Amino acid sequence: MRCPFCKQDNDKVIDTRPSEDGFAIRRRRECVACNKRFTTHERLEEMPVRVVKKSGRREPFDRAKILGGILRAVEKRSISLETVEKLVDAIEREILNQTDREISTRDIGELVMSHLRGMDEVAYVRFASVYREYQALEEFIKEIRTINPASNGGNNSGNNKK
Fold first, then answer.
1. I want to staple 61 with a disulfide (CB 3.0 to 4.6 A). Which of 12, 49, 55, 67 is the partner?
2. Cα–Cα dist 35/14, whole Å
3. Residues 54-89: pLDDT tens digits?
4. pTM higher than 0.90, yes or no?
């Protein structure tokens, strides 16, 4: 490690500690040439996750895009920002824990929908309508039937005539 003061490449480590989050090592060093002290941080170099778009283009994974999509889906619902943040954390963890360093937008969308489905059905349908690009009312009805099979499309067989 080069000294930031005299630029010599001769130092000794005088203290080593893990960082607060536990994902880095903090080292206090002293330059043997000029006796000045400086701190370095060592982190694990992670392979970034790339997102494969429908067009085939690849771009870096961006948690903010998932957060934005979910916030639009839960708008005017009684879901706290803290709950949404925890949901995004869980989705991000699943994406980062996979062994493949590329994931398709389709897989991300399905992952988000699987989490939303269990949290809020209205938010789920809102997200699905944008993600699946619904063009007709029948597509909404079909999606609603997948989460609520009791909605039988207006069959009034339960009507009793007196």
1. 49
2. 12
3. 999 999 999 999 999 999 999 999 999 999 999 998
4. no
Point out which residues pair with 30 in neighbouring strands.
12, 37
Q: Which two tokens stand for residue 97?
A: 């824990």
CA dist., res. 65 & res. 127, Å (int): 13
User: Edge-to-edge, what's the strand order for the sheet holding 102-104?
Assistant: 58-60, 50-52, 102-104
pLDDT digits (tens, 9 = 90+) for 107-133: 999 999 999 988 988 898 888 888 777
Q: How many CA atoms lie within 13 A of 115 on its CB side?
A: 23
Q: CA nearest 42: which of 14, 17, 5?
A: 17
42 SS3 class: strand
Q: What is the pLDDT of residues 36-55, one digit of tens each?
A: 999 998 877 677 899 999 99
52 within 8 A of 60, measured Cβ to Cβ: no
Radius of gyration of the chain, Cα coordinates, nearest whole angstrom: 26
Residue partners of 10: CB distance under 8 A and separation at least 6:
3, 31, 32, 33
